[in-house]
Target: Dolichol-phosphate mannosyltransferase subunit 1
Amino acid sequence: MASDIQESDNIKSQNKYSILLPTYNEVENLPIIIWLIIKYMNESGYDYEIIIIDDGSPDGTLEAAGQLQNIYGKDKIVLRPREKKLGLGTAYIHGIKHATGNFVVIMDADLSHHPKFIPQFIEKQQKGDFDVVSGTRYVGSGGVYGWDFKRKLVSRGANFLTQLLLRPGASDLTGSFRLYKKDVLEKLIKSCVSKGYVFQMEMIIRAREFNYSIGEVPITFVDRVYGESKLGGSEIVQFIKSLLYLFATT
Ligand SMILES: Nc1nc2c(ncn2[C@@H]2O[C@H](COP(=O)(O)OP(=O)(O)OP(=O)(O)O)[C@@H](O)[C@H]2O)c(=O)[nH]1
Ligand SMILES: [Mg+2]
Model:
């Protein structure tokens, strides 16, 4: 029993989790998400850092991030801002470059992804030595709250079509709340060609292509609390185009 505890302490002290938080106009959400991440990570005892990648948000997100850094410390909150809005894919690459952990968690800052699931991702990863652990809204206790019918239909439809065409071996393809081994994430991002909504799906398709193992944890997903949503018709068209491209090439 005592050796069990020692062993789990060893695992805890060896690994470090870099949590990447890309932000664009998240000034209302940022203090809450940071507080929650710190609460759940401190409670579970894992070593971690939060890397905020702000892309010149006009609403003052970066200033808020600076204040949070003063409160929680520079070892916990790392700021890696960029001049202007350059998109999510490159924001991740930028964040990984500065990550000092051997694991990387990717999550949205708009409170859609609840930090309470991060320790669950970590436990899952350790149980199966998974290369990737993906949050899923489509298994077990997972689910979506606050979406209108159109948004649910698009998400379900995208997942269904992709399952049918590509058989990816994971149930939630369009979500982005995931834990990766850092070297695995680097390799996956480099191999991805798509941008925007479809990028998260391609990451899982590539993971399967490279024979990486994927674990899943049911998550509840809540619609963004503050700020505006961007999903429109052009994203849907782009998604279907990219899906067919991946179907033809992988
Ligand atoms: N650094 C950076 N962050 C971004 C950019 N675009 C979006 N984000 C952030 O990435 C995360 C996901 O973006 P969201 O706007 O929530 O995308 P979504 O969840 O598909 O759409 P909605 O929540 O419905 O608006 C959020 O934390 C955003 O603030 C960008 O160009 N650069
Ligand atoms: Mg969102």
About this structure: The chain has a mean pLDDT of 89. The first helix runs from residue 2 to 14. The two ends are 47 Å apart (CA to CA). The first strand starts at residue 16 and ends at 23.
